[in-house]
Amino acid sequence: MATDVISSETIPLPDADDAPTVVVVVEIPRGGRAKFEIEPESGTVWLDRVLSTSTRYPAEYGYVEHTIAGEGDPLDAVVLLEEATVPGCHIPARPIGVLEMSDEHGVDPKLLCVATGDPTMGELAHACDVPHHVLEEIEHFFRVYKALEPRTHVETSGWRDATAAAELVAQSRASYRRHTIRPDEQDPLMDLHLEPEQATLLREVLDTTSRDLHYEIADTDNSKFKSMLRERARVLDELLELVGGPLPTE
């Protein structure tokens, strides 16, 4: 499929100095077929699977710290770098484009970045600066890397520019802030004086939500998403205990 990078000759693109910088945590080094996943909370590295096809990752692949994308996972990122790294390596990087794609779970864009510490790749400012064949190789990989896996589906629709990359980073960071409660941002603890009817209703709502969340944890195969759900379930169960604990099962 042909790439769709917007040329800098037709639309003004942001200067490299104005582009956001991100930290990409590498899960799969360039050239690998082992699909590693890292739990953001613990840093634990898990082997998710080995690719069923003979394709190998054409660049460093991982996620952007402190982001949440459409599927509830951190934003996926591809980093152009002259040397392969290792799982868990943190790369200061600059986003220069976005590969628009979707899979069986929904919209799943890939942020294209360059490592700011690489004297060769780090000079690139926009996706249109990357050799056309490199962009086609990356897009081809993501289009076919699940081809032999059952019940999977991947579609790619070309590349977008550095402006789109900056917007995606901003959206993903805002989503992270909405879903994350930091200790220094918490309001002072308030005492809630509930009427008996209010306490009963709150207990029922929390109990139902907790059960649904635990079912969702059991049904998902995504280790990073499962880790996030488990943390939410832990907090929810603590709240449930404050109002009397789980309701008796019939």
Major beta sheet, specifics? 5 strands, mixed, barrel
Number of helices: 4
Are there runs of 5+ residues with pLDDT below 50, and where? 7-14, 186-190
Assign the CATH superfamily of the largest domain. Answer: Inorganic pyrophosphatase
Read across the widest sheet, the strand sequence of neighbours is 1-4-5-8-6
CATH topology of the largest domain: Inorganic Pyrophosphatase
Number of domains: 2
- The gross shape turns out to be elongated
Q: Tell me roughly what share of residues is in helical segments.
A: 25-40%
Rg to the nearest angstrom? Answer: 21 Å
Can you characterise this structure?
The protein is of the alpha+beta class. It folds into two domains: 162 residues, Inorganic Pyrophosphatase (Alpha-Beta Complex); 51 residues. Helices cover 30% and strands 22% of the residues. Strands 1-4-5-8-6 form a five-stranded mixed beta barrel. α3 packs antiparallel against α4. It is elongated. About 5% of the residues have low confidence.
Keywords:
250 residues; alpha+beta; Inorganic Pyrophosphatase; 4 helices; 2 domains
Explain briefly what this protein structure is:
The protein is an alpha+beta fold and 250 residues long.
Topology:
Layout: E1 22-28, E2 34-38, E3 45-50, E4 60-64, E5 76-80, E6 90-103, E7 106-107, E8 110-115, H1 132-144, E9 155-160, H2 162-179, H3 196-219, H4 223-242
Parallel strand pairs: 5-8
Antiparallel strand pairs: 1-4, 1-6, 2-3, 4-5, 6-7, 6-8, 6-9
Helix pairs in contact: 3-4
